[in-house]
Write a structure and sequence with these properties.
This protein has 132 residues and is mainly beta. It has one domain (3-122): OB fold (Dihydrolipoamide Acetyltransferase, E2P) (Beta Barrel), CATH 2.40.50.140. It is 4% helix and 46% strand. It has one helix spanning 126-130; strands at 3-4, 15-26, 30-34, 37-48, 51-58, 70-81, 84-89, 94-97. Strands 2-4-5-7-6 form a five-stranded mixed β-barrel. The longest helix is centred in the C-terminal third of the chain and has 5 residues, at 126-130. It is globular.
Length: 132
């Protein structure tokens, strides 16, 4: 299992991380255009006791979670969007549903998000992108 992190610790370029989060909002799957063609994604707002951030679910993971659920992400990776570090779960990643008590209640999740100082996009290994 990858290293366990908290929302406040997220930095662009991290990968193979494990994190427990509560789903605050979960969007429906949609198709977007990327440099590699059409991709299906869904987006969510997730949080823990240290903060909240956006999460993108890619491919078959899109639409697989619901608001209110508590989950552990395994093999997740971090990107930056509009100056905020956000979680991603792709083909190689896992989503495991947990007991509600594993993450603080929604009203105990701070409004703060993990800000990124530099807006430079981190280099990602080409072989990793192929796995999407």
């Amino acid at each position: 299992m990858g290293r366990e992190v908290k929302i406040k610790d997220l930095k662009p370029g991290m990968d193979n991380i494990s994190i427990k989060v509560r789903i605050l909002e979960a969007g429906k799957p949609k198709v977007i255009q990327t440099r590699k063609g059409s991709r299906i994604i869904s987006e969510a707002l997730v949080g823990d006791e240290t903060g909240r951030t956006r999460m993108t679910l890619w491919g078959k993971k899109a639409g697989s979670i619901k608001a209110g659920e508590v989950i552990r992400l395994r093999k997740a990776f971090v990107t930056v969007f509009r100056g905020v570090a956000q979680l991603n779960i792709g083909k190689q990643g896992e989503i495991v549903k947990l007991d509600d008590s594993e993450v603080v209640a929604s009203n105990k999740i701070p409004e703060t998000s993990p800000k990124v100082e530099s807006h430079r996009r981190p280099y990602r290994r080409t072989s990793f992108r192929k796995s999407w």
